[in-house]
Amino acid sequence: MFRKLALGVCIMFAASPLFAANKEQKRLENSGTVMQEVMGVPDNIPQELLEKAECVIVFPSVLKGAFIVGGSYGRGAMVCRTGEHFNGPWGSPAMYALEGGSVGFQLGGQATDLVLLVMNERGASSILSSQVKLGADASAAAGPKGRDASADTDAYMRAEILSYSRSRGLFAGISLEGSTLRPDDDANADVYGRKITAKEIVLGHKTAVPASGRLLVRVLQKNAPHNESQKASNR
């Protein structure tokens, strides 16, 4: 009896890392599904803004309840363009967490998907280096929506991060000021099967896209294959 119990405990502990990896891989897959669905909404992210983004961060199924108890209420993935100046194809995803701030009260009781656009190198570098507080360490604004929305107003030109929400089929800009954004390196280890930082994933350019992240990368590559902000700066 004792031997069977001991064997069951060993199997449980041996399987727990696999369970964690599967959970994070599923979260990454869901991020790709959310981005694909968002791009199918007629009144979605302006094409001009997506084409100028250095990185895109997706948090699927963010819940207000997790905010109320003070924990991390958003976990998802960030994909950046490759190249020294983020001017290449979209690279491998790094897992991220969103915490704190007032967004919990804005979301209401239902699950909400969040999409963040990182609009310049400074924003991307700060997010990769450490935890950042939106509105303080990195400027943030609710993003405009609609394919014909103006993307050249002062607010959008100054913001390092533009944020959007999708809930119950409705898509809109949302303010995330006061929230903190940080790399989730435990989740990265679960997805990639080894200890690896977000900075190594994004800037190392040697990490293959995992199967669970291919949809997210494919959707971004299809809808915004080139960094148009680089072209504009070179004119």
List keywords for this structure.
alpha+beta; 21% strand; disordered N terminus; 10 helices; 235 residues; nine-stranded mixed beta sheet
Percent helix, as a range, is 40-55%
Structural class: alpha+beta
Low-confidence stretches: 2-19, 65-72
Compute the number of helices.
Answer: 10
Radius of gyration: 18 Å
Give the termini separation.
Answer: 76 Å
Name the average pLDDT.
81
Strand content: 15-25%
> What would you call the shape?
globular
Helix and strand pattern: HHEHEEHEHEEHEEEHHHH
Main beta sheet, described? 9 strands, mixed
Give the tally of β-strands: 9
Number of domains: 1
Secondary structure elements and pairings:
Blueprint: H1 2-39, H2 47-52, E1 55-62, H3 64-68, E2 72-80, E3 94-99, H4 103-107, E4 112-118, H5 121-129, E5 132-133, E6 140-142, H6 154-158, E7 161-167, E8 170-173, E9 180-183, H7 185-192, H8 198-204, H9 214-223, H10 228-234
Parallel strand pairs: 6-7
Antiparallel strand pairs: 1-2, 1-4, 2-3, 3-9, 4-7, 5-9, 7-8
Structure description:
By secondary structure, the chain is an alpha+beta fold. The chain has one domain. It contains ten helices and nine strands. Strands 1, 2, 3, 4, 5, 6, 7, 8 and 9 form a nine-stranded mixed sheet that branches. Strand 7 and strand 8 (170-173) form a beta hairpin. The longest helix is centred in the N-terminal third of the chain and has 38 residues, at 2-39. The N and C termini lie far apart (76 Å).
